[in-house]
Amino acid sequence: MLRTSGLTKEFGGLTAVDDVDFALEDGELCSLIGPNGAGKTTFFNLLTGVLTPTRGTVEVRRESGGWRDVTDATPYETANLGLHRSYQITNVFPTSTVLENVRVAAQAASNDGAKLWRNAKAFEAHREEARAILDRVGLADEADTAAESLSHGAKRQLEVGIALAGDPDVLLMDEPNAGVSSESVDRIIDLIEDVATDHAVLLVEHNMDIVMNVSDRVVVLNQGAVIAEGTPEEVRGDPTVQEAYLGGYEAGSLDADETATDSPDAGTDAEEGTA
Ligand SMILES: Nc1ncnc2c1ncn2[C@@H]1O[C@H](COP(=O)(O)OP(=O)(O)OP(=O)(O)O)[C@@H](O)[C@H]1O
To answer: What single DSSP character describes residue 272?
Structure first.
């Protein structure tokens, strides 16, 4: 679905992403993990066209089976090619309702956006599509709630819903558990697993219980370079990964952000809304 070759990003003297060869297969749920500053966000930004690489290429598979080079594509172009990112690139309209946020995203993704206001049928179709998505991400009961009033966990669900409205082939999930209370972790796991049933997913997530639970494959970055990859079991047992990142991790030993309260104003989502 997606592949990179020799992907490198330098910021002055710092190599944030270092010669990464990566491929995401059709139907795969792959997690990208690594310590703070390992280059995960930079890698996402290179995939989606937010940043241009210093060297290397990014390609997405076309429906015809060939590959299209998107190394220099804009975020708008990569989204049109089926590469969608939940979270940091998402612009949630805070005062609009949850339903409106998803409906507008569905409208924007369709080719009839400009005609829409003259076409009540199309408007209704996008609203129905939005309702189906809200049902899928577990927000049907919050359809009429203003987005800004949602809990952190529900905001993450909305961000995934907005990404789904773009009808993606590949979903890049950027810390869907950020700021979510420990009681809501199971809901986020269910959401990731459900989305992965019909999309290729690349997940960046710090909660190792989630990563080890949901992933088909785990890729470990350290100082911009891939230091290991394999099944969750293989990666967990890799001494290099233990030393660089996991530090003795055992299942269940890392919980969700225990400081999170999952209330709308808990102040843990300061990074929201940034592109
Ligand atoms: N725009 C920038 N200019 C200069 N340096 C940057 C820039 N963006 C990121 N970096 C640096 O690149 C390195 C990788 O950062 P990045 O945010 O990609 O890591 P990360 O793995 O996503 O970290 P975290 O888990 O903390 O989010 C860090 O040393 C960071 O300081």
So the answer is: T
Count other C-beta atoms under 10 Å from residue 89's C-beta: 21
155 lines ligand 1 (CB under 6 A): no
Determine the Cα–Cα distance for residues 103 and 32; give it in Å rounded to an integer.
30
Does residue 5 sit in helix, strand or coil? strand
- Whether 42 is in the pocket of ligand 1, judged by its Cβ within 6 Å, is yes
Q: How far apart are CA 22 and CA 2, in angstroms?
A: 8
Residue with the smallest CA separation from ligand 1 atom 24 is: 36
pLDDT at position 90: 55
The answer, yes or no, to whether ipTM is higher than 0.95 is: yes
Determine the pLDDT at residue 259.
44
CA of 36 to the centre of ligand 1 (A): 8
Which of 42, 46, 222, 223 best tests ligand 1's pocket when mutated (most atoms within 8 Å of CB)?
42
**pLDDT surpassing 80 at residue 220:** yes
Q: Which residue has the tokens 């809501």?
A: 184
Q: Is residue 170 a contact partner of residue 123, using CB atoms and an 8 Å limit?
A: no
| Cα–Cα dist 226/219, whole Å | 7
Q: Is the CB of 39 under 6 A from ligand 1?
A: yes
